Amino acid sequence: MQQIINFILRYKNFLLYLFLLTISLALTVQSHSYHRSKYFNSSNWLTGNIYKTTSSITTYFGLVEENKKLVEENKRLHTLLFNQKKEDSMQLDTANIIYKVIAAQVIKNSYGLPRNYITINKGSNNGIKPDMGVITSNGILGIVENTSKNFATVQSILNTKSRINAKIKNTNHYGSLVWDTKDFNTVQLVDIERLVPLKIGDTIVTGASSSIFPENIPIGIIKKFDLNNSQSSYSIDIKLFNNMAAIKSIYVLDNVQREEIIELEAKTNNDAQ
Amino acid sequence: MMRNSYFINVIRFVLLILVQVLVFNKLNFFGYINPMVYILFLYWYPIKEKRQLFLLLSFLLGFMVDLFSDTVAIHAAATVTIAYLRPTIMRFCFGVNYEFQNFKLTNTTRAQQITFLALLIIIHHLVFFTLEIFSLANTLLILKKVLAISAATLILCLLLSSLFSVKKE
């Protein structure tokens, strides 16, 4: 017993170091494989409020650019609206809306790490829940991962954990959107078969087989493509429509039917077993 | 005197975290270079203080930076590692001198100080990027990042430390 106590006393610094290192390694490794811990992220009260304060100062410097972007988007939406075939009556009933849209602002953006997260200024108080899709006026941005009362973190498409269903516009060739961490304006589309005809400049949009994003949200254009090592499917470099370094206004998409879809899928899986 | 030193360290702790997350984490020089200047806390921290407290403080420092940059606990792991290795590094840089009562960082030569800081930074970045990228297949990428970002961190730390250095009497 005496010896054990002596041992502990002699190596107390080393043991403390080992203890602290184990904690951090355990947290890190766990987060690599699965959802991160609910509390250790920048959506918490302290970090959220600090980022909010600084972003409320720095947003002033980009207001002109931001306004131009929003006017541009309004123009596009108005064009769509005015050229729509007239219906007899306006639809005011919200009962058959599938996607609800929540507007929010980015208060912290990151794009230099292999796993990037974006913090936004709306949280569970505004109806934001994990696994909602996030887009900007130019295209797709990511998926909500954690929420607190007033803030939420978004797993950016610039994240090695991100896999989003995508397809080539106006076709039914689906693949997964991943990121190789090399360039923050380029992502990769994998699992497109080699038989599919491709052209540089083709548009890539989100696919239909996800309950997070609606179909046909723009992502980017094909910059370069070649066959991968196994020669069975393409790996395609996509230049994003979004400038990931300058993102301010975003929209969070709430799929009203998502719970129903998940429930149904779970039930089907249970029945199959 | 004693309380004054505590006070300075607390201020340093808070200011370095804020400067790190609000300024240097947003630099993204060449798309990926974000210098980690908060390492200066470990460079400046008094030598004669209790080691356990130092380890805990370093862990907390890294963990706060982690919270802000959404990296879970990678900064914490790297920082606690250099905090543990600091006495060894100091013995390497300053020889047996550093164990004397009247040893002060300001009494050492410039070259010794830079070596000390550089070693802290390189070890920190090695641990950090190994954990961040987390695959041996990318050894070259890890080395490239370690070299580029270590250089950036070292330059900025030297600038900051000369800006806020205690006057030599």
Characterize the structure shown:
The complex is a heterodimer of chains A (273) and B (169). Chain A has helices at 2-10, 12-33, 45-58, 63-82, 258-272, and strands at residues 99-108, 115-120, 133-135, 140-147, 152-159, 164-168, 174-178, 186-193, 203-206, 218-227, 233-240, 249-255. Chain A has 273 residues and is an alpha+beta fold. In chain A, strands 1-2-5-4-3-12 form a 6-stranded antiparallel β-barrel. A 6-stranded antiparallel β-barrel of chain A has the order 6-7-8-11-10-9. The longest helix of chain A has 22 residues, at 12-33. The model of chain A has no long low-confidence stretch (mean pLDDT 85). Helices cover 68% and strands 0% of the residues of chain B. Chain B has 6 helices and no strands. Chain B has helices at residues 2-22, 40-44, 51-69, 74-94, 110-133, 139-163. In chain B, α1 (2-22) runs parallel beside α3. The longest helix of chain B has 25 residues, at 139-163. Classes of the chains: A alpha+beta (273), B mainly alpha (169). The interface between A and B is large, with 40 and 35 residues.
Low-confidence stretches of chain A: none
Quantity of strands of chain A, as a count: 12
Which CATH architecture of chain A would you pick?
Beta Barrel
Poorly predicted ranges of chain B: none
- Give the termini distance of chain A in whole angstroms: 54 Å
Number of discrete helical segments of chain B: 6
Most extensive contact: A-B, 40 and 35 residues
Order of helices and strands of chain A: HHHHEEEEEEEEEEEEH
Measured by DSSP, the beta-strand proportion of chain B falls in under 5%
Task: Categorize the overall geometry of chain B.
Answer: globular
Total helices of chain A: the number is 5
Keywords (chain A): Cell shape
Protein name (chain A): Cell shape-determining protein MreC
InterPro entries (chain A): Cell/Rod_1, Cell/Rod_MreC_2, MreC, MreC_beta-barrel_core
Family (chain A): Belongs to the MreC family.
